[in-house]
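Study the following:
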Amino acid sequence: MPEVLIIDDERSIRSALREMLEYEKFNVDDAEDGKAGLEQLNKKKYDLVLCDIKMPKMDGLEVLEKILEREDDIPVIMISGHGNIETAVEALKKGAYDFIEKPFDLNRILVSVRNAFDRTTLVEETKVLKKKISKSKGFDIIGESKAIAEIREMIAKVAPSDARVLITGGNGSGKELVARQIHQQSARAEAPFVEVNCAAIPSELIESELFGHEKGAFTSAIKQRKGKFEQADGGTLFLDEIGDMSLSAQAKVLRALQENRINRVGGDKDITVNVRVLAATNKDLRKEINEGKFREDLFHRLSVILIHVPSLNERKDDIPVLTEYFVDQLVEEQGLLKKTFTPEAIKALQEVNWTGNIRELRNIIERLLILGGKEVSASDVKTYANPAAV
């Protein structure tokens, strides 16, 4: 239950507030002056403080300042029988959550208390979200193998330029991480990073998705819409699985790359865009070109720099550090119980044929944390690394 501290030199006020808050299922402590209140705060963690302004030994505004110097973000509601507008403004300027005058309405106090707790919940949720966002923005490429070191070195060289990059590799190998690292290390890092999964968009919608459309361009176009090229203006556009893009869309992408201009579907106005394009594919584009499925001129436009991301089977030396990374990530994000992987379990993971690459490894680490023993063994790996065995 939430913990509340009442600091007031009037016993009757403390008793009235305690009775009301305990009825509302709060745990309540009280102190008869500011000094005693601060001593109580040093002994116990509170979620809310109600503090009188005029008290012996230490003024309530001084108590407020001392509380706000702490790093626990406790909301403070100031109460006073000597209140006036100047006092209220001063208390709020100093950082009080609210100010209520005596004789006060208990309902008014209760509303303020509930709002303060709602605010505390929002602050905590915001901290968690910021932490998650900060982590998601990192997009670290995890690994100590020679192949990963070479990719990091290539990214460091390529990122500062505006050169187009074609990233190749199997599904789940980490192509998006490479693209995001290039963006983050570039001069465009503060601008948008816009991703398009070309394989997930129906061919008849891909042009609208990339270039936008004008109102009435087709039946469902009830209003004008900006496409991904415009959304990424000034930043980076990542065309994932570009090998699955239709030939008609490829032609328009080629024009956009050549002229830095686009046309919305149903429009005839040229729109200038300033976009760095990164592309990725799990296909052999040279083979696709020979089969007439991919434009050779677009391939050459996209592949100024080629970066190949090795499969997990080609970098099994990275499995120990990847396992540790995913364990820590899953424990923090999902609250799973942290488990140790025995050396034999790590060796067993290195013997798996990782057709799904890094994505598959993360899924299996999650499965082992949920279903494996207190200490994950080689036997657990052999049992749960094969989805058909679960």
User: Anything to note?
Assistant: The two ends are 40 Å apart (CA to CA). The mean pLDDT is 89. The chain has 16 helices and 14 strands. The domain at 146-305 is CATH 3.40.50.300 (Rossmann fold).
